[in-house]
Design a protein that fits this description.
Keywords: Cytoplasm, Glycosyltransferase, Magnesium, Metal-binding, Nucleotide-binding, Purine salvage, Transferase
CATH class: Alpha Beta
Bound molecules: hypoxanthine, magnesium ion
Subcellular location: Cytoplasm
Strand content: 25-35%
Number of domains: 1
Catalytic activity: IMP + diphosphate = hypoxanthine + 5-phospho-alpha-D-ribose 1-diphosphate; GMP + diphosphate = guanine + 5-phospho-alpha-D-ribose 1-diphosphate
Number of helices: 4
Pfam family, one: Pribosyltran
CATH architecture: 3-Layer(aba) Sandwich
Strand order of the largest sheet: 1-8-7-6-3-4-5
Subunit structure: Homotetramer.
Amino acid sequence: MTSGLQIKDEDCGFNKNLFCVPKHYEDDLERVFIPHGLILDRTERLARDIMQDMGNHPIFALCVLKGGYKFFADLMDHIKALNRNTDQSVPITVDFVKTKSYCNDIPTGTVSIIGEELSAFKGKNVLVVEDIIDTGKTIQTLLSRIKEYEPQMVKVVSLLVKRTIRSSGYKPDYIGFEIPDKFVVGYALDYNEYFRDLNHICILNEKAKEKYKL
Ligand code: HPA
Ligand code: MG
């Protein structure tokens, strides 16, 4: 396990005017925090690391919706490219589970898991694909549910891990970026369902948090 690409607490990202962002979000963003290109480059390397470790066994990839869908799709594309272009190749099957644990930018303290067919995991090598690990509560709840069905192996990859005092201490097997305790959106991460349609991972301004508040 590595701690991923470290983004320091004092790192505040990039001026949004130096990047292309949708017009409808221009006034809502404070900074571009992780540009889309960097996300894809890091994802390419995660795909290589995962393939090296998971070896010759078929992978049962589980996407944690909704925030994980972009990362999942790009990670699978990179894994598929390795399958096409290297001697090692393993079949991949995919499934989806939906979790919800945030309202506004605050964890609700409850984790709902919706629409799962977790019994299919028995004897499989499961790769859980998450967008972000914050308190760790969502992933730990999900993992204990998956493990009831006796998979052969479970690995977790998360694009982001937040350094926060609210953390349970849980660390995934693979980490894209370790980030400071800031609320981020974009690349399928949302604030009350908005900003999933933004390529870069960005920081919102306070006005936007008010504007889209529930
Ligand atoms: N952004 C979006 N969703 C989240 C975050 C975040 O920073 N942390 C946990 N879920
Ligand atoms: Mg998530």
